[in-house]
Amino acid sequence: MHPRLAALHALRIADPRQKVEATQAIAARLHAQTHAQATIAQPIRAPGDEAGVPGRPERPLRVAATAVEKRSPFTVEGRAALIHAICHIEFNAINLALDAAWRFDGMPDAYYRDWLGVAAEEAHHFELLHAHLQTLGHRYGDFTGHDGLWSMCEKTRDDVVARMGLVPRTLEARGLDATPLIQAKLRRVATPDALRAVEILDVILRDEVGHVAIGNRWYRWLCERDGLDPVSHYRVLYRRHDAPRLRAPFNLEARALAGFTDEELSALGTVDVAT
């Protein structure tokens, strides 16, 4: 199956285990092929392809971000809710990466390879977190979840520049800021399950730096292609799509590793970005 068709197939799968397996199979097939054997970029989208996008299970029940359970890391149930929340983010991140690979025609092969590789890593993150969640007596779907990530995916469905600007390098970059704060709380708890969660988050943080870097790289490539200034156009996209306000504290070291420029780092959280 053509890699982008395979991405659409995986995107439509609702069962988390099957989605993970299908996503990782795509990456494995691409890894086994030479670049000459796998032409990815040819246009394949057709009317009706939106049907069933995204595939996701009936649970977790999706609620407003203000209505999710309390996630205090200082109780077992609170830690389970916290791990579930991150698990939900990673499940959505699989769909986001698959959608980026399937939806946008006319990009270089390297773009599709990048996002299919990201999807496989997000699937691995989901596996790690779900296995850990089960040691706490819960499964994915036992708590509620909100729809913030996919909502921005919907808003940017017709604009690849906006997608690259506002999903990996805005929403997912917030994870670079939040993860060390969560880890610090878990280290204070210091139970074996809390410390195992810290280890898993180390893996996720390392990989997410790479994912945000991919978003930065393709956002800048697109801006250069279209004659856009990356900084000023980002502000336009931010306002146009009502992106969440960027709030401190920021993980400046991780953001720099992910390819944000000094100008972009200096502008974080300022009025001219957020208004």
Separate helix tally: 11
Strand content: under 5%
CATH topology: Ferritin
Shape: globular
- Separation, N- and C-terminal Cα atoms: 45 Å
CATH architecture call:
Up-down Bundle
| Class based on secondary structure composition and strand pairing | mainly alpha
State the major sheet. none
The radius of gyration computed from the alpha-carbon positions, rounded to a whole number of angstroms, is 18 Å
Arithmetic mean pLDDT: 91
**How many beta-strand segments?**
0
Helix content: 55-70%
What string, H for helix and E for strand, traces the elements in order?
HHHHHHHHHHH
Which stretches are low in confidence, meaning pLDDT under 50 for 5 or more residues running? 271-275
Oligomer: single chain
CATH level 1 name:
Mainly Alpha
What does this structure look like?
It is a single chain. This protein has 275 residues and is mostly helical. It has one domain (3-35, 58-274): Ferritin. The protein is 66% helix and 0% strand. It has eleven helices and no strands. Helix 1 runs antiparallel to helix 3 (76-103), helix 2 (16-32) packs across helix 4 (109-135) and helix 4 packs antiparallel against helix 7. The longest helix is centred in the last third of the chain and has 35 residues, at 192-226. The relative contact order is 0.12.
